[in-house]
Amino acid sequence: MKKILVTGGSGYIGAHTIVDLIENGFEVISADNNSRSTPDMLAGVEKITGTKIKNYKVDLCNYDETHAIFEENSDISGIIHFAAYKAVGESVEKPVLYFQNNLGSLINILRCIEEFHIPHFVFSSSCTVYGNPDSIPVTEETPRKNAESPYGLTKQMGEQMIESFAVAHPTSKSVLLRYFNPAGAHPSAIIGELPIDRPQNLTPVITQTAIGKIPSLTVFGDDYPTRDGSCLRDLIHVCDLAHAHTLALQFLIDGKNSSNCEVFNLGSGNGITVLEAIAAFEKSTGIKLNYSIGNRRPGDVIAIYANNDKARKELKWEPRNSLEDIMTSAWKWEQFIANQPKHLELRSHKLN
Ligand code: UD1
Q: Are the beta carbons of 35 and 352 closer than 8 angstroms?
């Protein structure tokens, strides 16, 4: 059984990925200091899988603490590195925090890959690396344009650091996974997205509006050059995204990669506007959302969605969940957390 270190294992995509890895026969250890997550998420993973997960509560920006994980686990055969900050707006206000946290932790992970000769590495990247693309859908060949935020810059720089690393270390193979807009929750509603403070991302804003925590949703702009004037995105179910990580690891283990550092787009391949996403939620749940049109949000990309042919062909990945599955599972999860005092407490947590 291959042992995989998942950093950010208590996070939204991390927790769903651990479930998928375990269901596919991998052994998993996690590293998460819960600076922006709750250990309850791993407890949820344990409940779903019936497997105890060892978590190292370390700050990955601390080299000695990170190094100690590898000393204790000489049999780690792969790493999936999720741990990072991801609030676009916060990154604009605190760029140094983002450089320090997102790149500092990645450097320490790369140092350990080097020292302990870890053969397989999967990096959590984002479609944000494309900036505002000249044409859509984007393929992996679409150039990385200027990042729209320091958060986006950390993903671009992270990718470039791994590409350089791959040149110097031919025995360590990497995959960069560019996520589009992850949404939805595990069908059990035992794990899901748990934003701290007020959510920024569209799907949790939709579900919190539906449940009444947010009085009214603001659509950020309806005068964009899209089919209905609102921005266009590519929502991908978090369980489909999670499974792609398992496939990416297997792809490296089986030696199917043609370069030392492969890149894959992970999106559904369908563009959906913000107004269409609202309508899809209403249709899937029968709940009317209170919303109004507001100003454009600074830094928003106008329109982006994925060409996912490469992941389909080479990883044999196929998104299985529909837009309706995304909306109904996100809603089921929102209703579940509404009754969890501990989760609500976390939501009032202050960002550091
Ligand atoms: C952004 C990043 C993405 C990152 C993600 C993590 C960019 C271009 N994209 O995604 O890489 O992985 O954050 O958090 O940096 N919207 C509303 N009202 C709301 C909330 C959102 O209209 O209350 C709209 C936004 O204007 C946007 C769309 O919904 O057009 C999606 O927004 P969001 O869910 O925040 O994701 P991105 O900005 O696409």
A: yes
Q: Is the CB of 106 under 6 A from ligand 1?
A: no
Task: Catalogue all structural domains in the chain, each as residue range(s) with its CATH number.
Answer: 3-347 (3.40.50.720)
Does 85 qualify as catalytic in the annotation?
no
Give every CB contact of residue 7 below 8 A, 6+ residues apart in sequence. Answer: 14, 30, 31, 32, 60, 79, 80, 81, 82, 83, 105, 109
User: What tens digit of pLDDT does each residue of 139-172 get?
Assistant: 999 999 999 899 999 999 999 999 999 999 999 9
* Catalytic member of 12, 85, 151, 305: 151
Instruction: Quickly tell me which residue has 């995204």 as its tokens.
Output: 241
pTM above 0.90, yes or no: yes
User: Per residue in 216-262, pLDDT tens?
Assistant: 999 999 999 999 999 999 999 999 999 999 999 999 999 999 999 99
Per-residue burial over 78-104, b = 16 or more CB atoms within 10 Å of its CB, e = otherwise: bbbbbbbbbbbebbeebeeebeebbbe
**Distance between CA atoms of 188 and 47, rounded to whole angstroms?**
10
Measured CA to CA, the distance from residue 26 to residue 39 in angstroms comes to 21
Place of tokens 């995509």: 13
Residue 251 CA to residue 72 CA, distance in Å, equals: 27
For residues 126 and 176, what is the distance between their CA atoms, to the nearest angstrom? Answer: 9
Residue whose CA lies nearest to ligand 1 atom number 34? 201
